Amino acid sequence: MTPIRVVLADDQALLRATFRLLLDATDDVLVVGEAATGAEAVRLARSTLADLVLMDIRMPEVDGIEATRRITADEALAGVKVLVLTTFEDDELVLSALRAGASGFLGKGVEPEALIDAIRTVAAGDQLLSPAATRAVIASVVERPEPRPRTEPAGFADLTAREREITALVAAGLSNTEIAGRLYISPATAKTHVNRAMLKTGARDRAQLVYLAYEAGLAQGA
Q1: How confident is the prediction along the chain (222 residues), in pLDDT tens digits per residue?
Q2: Closest Cα partner for 176 from 163, 166, 187?
Q3: Which of 78, 83, 151, 154 sits 20 to 30 Å CA-CA off 19?
Q4: Whole-structure pTM value
């Protein structure tokens, strides 16, 4: 099995060393670089052929949000996923990370096994939001004072009724297996609908689909 190539981006050397010890003890994960700034994270993502960057937000010079934006905007890094791991899980940071193209968002209090599972999940192309991060997205949309734009984001008009329904459930935080159970379909069918929704809306991954669905108002009442 080819290991998941990970770059650790955090301005605290002790935390990087702790994460490296944990990940180096995992057979299917390989740490290929460490960065203390966002700029270094972008450079290492490119030079090490990384699959995933474990990204802190609060870093000097270039922060994790801007570094994420640079990685996801670079066509040469199209296959690189960003998993944000931070102490701060407030609404604006979560939304900023999703807007920038992050594929996952976790708090630093996560259990070691959950972190490893998150790396595997995001590297496989799935979305991963912690419960706190999901609540932040929901709260931000529900409490937003201004009215919603009348025009949905590009591609939403092309979704079938089933794809819209499943996109709403993705935005509510359900996995493919949970969606399958809710709608009495197979997980494979649920995954197919999710993939088609991402293709039609131009979402990079499930995390971005979640954000777009909330922006479109599609997740209300899900």
Answers
A1: 789 999 999 999 999 999 999 999 999 999 999 999 999 999 999 999 999 999 999 898 899 999 999 999 998 998 899 999 887 656 677 778 878 888 888 888 888 998 998 899 888 877 666 555 555 555 555 555 554 554 567 788 899 999 999 999 988 878 888 899 999 999 899 989 999 999 999 887 777 788 788 778 776 544
A2: 187
A3: 78
A4: 0.70
